[in-house]
Amino acid sequence: MNKYDFGIVGLGVMGRNLLLNIADNQFAVAGLDLDPEKVASLQAEAGAEHQIHATTDAATFVGLIQQPRAIMLLVPAGKPVDSAIQSLLPYLEKGDIIIDGGNSYFPDTDRRFTELQAKGIHFFGMGISGGEKGARRGPSLMPGGDRQAYERLRPIFEAASAKVDGEPCVEFLGNGSAGNYVKMVHNGIEYGIMQLLAETYDLMKKAYGLPTGTIQQAFEQWNNAELQSFLVEITSEILKRKEENGAYLVDLISDWAKSKGTGKWTSQNAMDLQVPIPVIDAAVNMRDMSKYKPERIEASKSLIWDQGQTATADINEIKEALQFAILVTYAQGLAQLTVASETYNYELNLEVVTKIWRGGCIIRSVALEDFRKAYDKNPALRNILLDENIGQTVSKLQKSVRNVVKTAVEKGIPAAAFLNALTYFDAYRSENLPTNIIQAQRDYFGAHTYERIDREGTFHTQWD
Questions:
Q1: For the chain, what is the HEC assignment?
Q2: Is 410 known to be catalytic?
Q3: Cβ-contact 417, 195 below 8 angstroms
Q4: Catalytic residue among 38, 183, 355, 411
Q5: Which of 1, 59, 52 has its CA nearest to residue 26?
Q6: How far apart (Å, rounded) are the C-alpha atoms in residues 163 and 170?
Q7: Is residue 427 over pLDDT 90?
Q8: Can 205 be counted among the known catalytic residues?
Q9: Over the stretch 111-140, which tens digit does the pLDDT of each residue have?
């Protein structure tokens, strides 16, 4: 008893793989699951080379772990997290640590943090990115909670995480729900980039008339240059897969997309914070649009646009447009983290955030090292587009994105993420926006007042 370094509750795909990962790094790990088959399967896979003990009994499980106990929950977000906590509490003592490793909504994490703090239990919300393979071989880990209690967890998390240039892709991020919040925005950025890649594929196929094999080769080449990233890489792999009859598998997959809510949460909270993230908003909206399949089929027969001749494809121009839009998507998510950190007292360091995103996680890309350097040089950077080097890069790419967007509009191809990336860029670089007319309209119909640029104060006009 009390000889195991770490415990995991929930031995599904993520829990099982992360537990084996930690055990690979010479830590003794205990597992708890209510399903006897999962317990037996893990115990059989563990073998003699791992020090693993799995059980279905909460009291036995807690008793295995050395004090202060460190226990991670890898169960579905929502009520299952609260249920798991309640099942453990009778056996825990002051100073013990619970880590929620799921995609919990950050206000729930704050509530649990406060409730458990009153009982003397430390609580962490930790984002985990990398999927099944990442959990097994090295994910990006995003913990937030109690800084002092993190020292109990540090050796285990650093050993299990992905590594970039020998640096572990994990570090304490900030107070309270900081870890879950950073993971939420990570997922929002993920939504945006995935939508951009889908739109790129769609434009190349429909607007430029390129065959799937040529599109696949382009993605593969891009992944060996400026667009090197996990999502570009897997898109290239997806476009390779063929059925036995020679048909590309991607052409046989339904366009009815699903989601688990983290993108929606990112958009909703950005609106609460009044931070514009239009690419991410567009990505959420387009997943919603995909669910209206019967209506879209009907509309396709009556709402018709004559596309004319196929556009001439410039592969490099398409690549530059995609690079522009991806950089702008990162900029929006990072700007949201900046405002959220101030609003929620997270004390985030975006140099650290971008550093731990470089490996293991779904949005890892070569661009993140440039972001890390920018925040290292200027920690007070409000928007990554204000960094001289990144700003120059995006500015040089804008001609290409304008041409690609123009082609999409002319051909009637939906490109909401590209359009919103360009709109954000143009709005952000505008010294004056036409919202002065909105101020006047609000004052006209509601006497909401307005400010002037030629004198101090608040004004109202009797317009009629």
A1: CCCECEEEECCCHHHHHHHHHHHHCCCCEEEECCCHHHHHHHHHHHCCCCCEEEECCHHHHHHHECCCCEEEECCCCCHHHHHHHHHHHHHCCCCCEEEECCCCCHHHHHHHHHHHHCCCCEEEEEEEECHHHHHHHCCEEEEEECCCCHHHHHHHHHHHCCEECCEECECCCEECCHHHHHHHHHHHHHHHHHHHHHHHHHHHHHHCCCCHHHHHHHHHHHCCCCCCEHHHHHHHHHCCCECCCCCEHHHHCCCCCCCCCHHHHHHHHHHHHCCCCHHHHHHHHHHHHHCCHHHHHHHHHHCCCCCCCCCCCCHHHHHHHHHHHHHHHHHHHHHHHHHHHHHHCCCCCHHHHHHHCCCCCCCCECHHHHHHHHHHHCCCCCCHHHCHHHHHHHHHHHHHHHHHHHHHHHHCCCCHHHHHHHHHHHHHCCCCCCHHHHHHHHHHHHCCCEECCCCCCEECCCCC
A2: no
A3: yes
A4: 183
A5: 52
A6: 9
A7: yes
A8: no
A9: 999 999 999 999 999 999 998 899 999 999
Instruction: Describe the crossing of helices 178-202 and 262-273 by its angle, rounded to 10 degrees.
Output: 110
CB 81 within 8 A of CB 51: no
Rounded to a whole number of angstroms, the distance between the first and last alpha carbons of the chain is 82
Beta-carbon contacts of residue 375 (< 8 Å; ≥ 6 apart): 349, 350, 351, 354, 381, 384
* pLDDT at residue 20 greater than cutoff 90: yes
For residue range 216-248, list pLDDT tens digits in order. Answer: 999 999 999 999 999 999 999 999 999 999 999
Place of tokens 């563990």: 46
List all residues 6 or more positions away from 55 whose beta carbon is below 8 Å from its beta carbon.
30, 31, 32, 39, 61, 64
**Residue 138: CA count within 13 A, CB half-sphere:** 18
Q: What is the pLDDT of residue 182?
A: 97
Alpha-carbon radius of gyration of the chain: 25
Instruction: List phi, psi (to 5°) of 163.
Output: -125, 140
Helix axes 278-290, 416-428, angle to 10 degrees: 160
Contact 39, 16 (CB under 8 A): no
The domain locations on the chain are 6-175, 183-428
Single-letter amino acid, residue 21: N
Class level of CATH domain 183-428: mainly alpha
Which superfamily does CATH assign the domain made up of 6-175 to?
NAD(P)-binding Rossmann-like Domain (3.40.50.720)
- Amino acid in position 383: N
Q: Which of 190, 226, 233, 320 is catalytic?
A: 190
Q: Is the peptide bond before 68 cis (omega within 30 degrees of 0)?
A: yes
Residue-wise pLDDT for 139-153, tens only, equals 999 999 988 899 999
